[in-house]
Amino acid sequence: MASTPSRPGTSASELPIPVQPRNAGMPLDLGWVRAARANRSALERRATTLGKRRTVKKEWQAAWLLRAVTLMDLTTLQGDDTPGRVRRLCAKARQPVRSDLLEALGAERLGIRVAAVCVYHAMVPTAVDALEGTGIPVAAVSTGFPAGLSPFPQRLAEIRASLEAGADEIDVVVTRAHVLGEDWPALYDEIRAFREACGDAHIKVMLGTGELGMLRNVARASLVAMMAGADFIKTSTGKESVNATLPVGLVMVRAIREYLERTGTRVGFKPAGGIRSAKDSLEWLALMKEELGDAWLRPELFRFGASSLLTDIERQLEHFVTGRYSAAHRHPMA
Fold first, then answer.
1. Residue 192 neighbours by CB distance under 10 Å
2. Which phi and psi (to 5°) does residue 322 adopt?
3. DSSP reduced 3-state for 233
4. Residue 177, phi then psi, degrees to nearest 5
5. What long-range pairs does 254-257 form, CB within 8 A, spacing at least 24?
6. What mean pLDDT is predicted for residues 52-62?
7. Which of 2, 117, 178, 287 is 20 to 30 Å from 56 by CA-CA measure?
């Protein structure tokens, strides 16, 4: 990486960082939005270098993988979710890496835990109860997830209901037709209304990038979402045929950087869907470090939307400790 990674003995919580203010947003600037461009071939070339030109090995890799664990929104969004499954997932959130592995890594005192647990509205009370006293936030997907096509008053009511149930963060879905039709005022007004309904809760805006057609649309939608007050912009619902990809990530983080340069406000980023391996997580961390810097390697500004990713990271950590890969069933999720 461009600078020395944190050692396994260094916790993210031990490194100083100012309190992250909310993104208040700004009036819609159509000139800025329409000027946004994205060079697909250049972005794809840049993306291919991340896993080749920048690598971390041995104890450095173990340290980066522990950091990745602390950046996860541990997620279950299945039609067959049950309270029992959610409780087991929350238990994993509290202790995401086996204690014997943490002890072998010298990391048992770092308080390694995930950034949040993300569930459907119906499971919010269960998750809140299971995580009581931990400080781990509960995020709820909302606004007609995953398609975002339910009546608008109903989508606002979903946000309010999840907040009343105890959710700390809300992941909202935008109307993709606004982007595809380049109706930027409608997209801005929609997200602004979601932001107001969220009140003090952080809002993560899912753009559904796999359904937006062109990378230029991704760039423009990212800017509109931030202008409307998004605290995080998120690639996907995880339900599209194409979810988080590195070229899409580059478009979005560069929009975040441009927004910071123009407004002085930091906005978070969350890739979600299709990130399943430890190697994938290292590439995303490299992207964040190189494009936005160390400040975005913290849960205040970067999250993975993940479910199966944690299993592979824990297997890689066991390999580092023992020299052997273990079966996935040794690292159960839910």
1. 18
2. -110, -20
3. strand
4. -60, -30
5. 254/219, 254/291, 255/36, 255/219, 255/222, 255/223, 255/226, 256/222, 256/226, 256/292, 257/291, 257/292
6. 83
7. 117
The band of 217, judged by pLDDT with boundaries at 50, 70 and 90, is: very high
Over the stretch 81-94, which tens digit does the pLDDT of each residue have? 999 999 999 999 99
> One of 92, 168, 204, 270 is an active-site residue; which one?
270
Measured distance CA(101)–CA(63) in Å, rounded: 12
Alpha carbon 236 to chain centroid distance? 10
- Is 234 part of the annotated catalytic residue set? yes
Q: Give which of 325, 301, 298, 324 is closest to 68, Cα–Cα.
A: 298
- CA 308, 309, 312, 314 dihedral sign is negative
280 part of the active site: no
3-class DSSP state of 72: strand
CA angle 18, 19, 22 (to 5 degrees): 130
Q: How confident is the model at residue 19 (pLDDT cuts 50, 70, 90)?
A: low
Side-chain half-sphere of 126: how many Cα atoms within 13 Å? 18
Of these residues, 73, 234, 289, 312, which one is catalytic?
234
CA dist 226 and 176 (Å) reads 16
By percentage, how much of the chain surpasses pLDDT 70? 93
Number of H helices, E strands in the chain: 13, 8
Active-site entry in 73, 168, 171, 231: 171
More confident residue, 210 or 2: 210
pLDDT digit string, tens, across residues 168-188: 999 999 999 999 999 999 999
pLDDT of residue 64: 96
Q: What is the mean pLDDT of residues 126-136?
A: 97
Residue 204 annotated in active site: no
Mean pLDDT over residues 58-67, rounded? 94
Beta strand ranges found along the chain (DSSP E): 72-75, 116-119, 138-141, 169-173, 202-206, 232-234, 268-270, 304-306
Closest CA to 139 of 113, 123, 158, 117: 117
The mean of the pLDDT values for the chain is 92
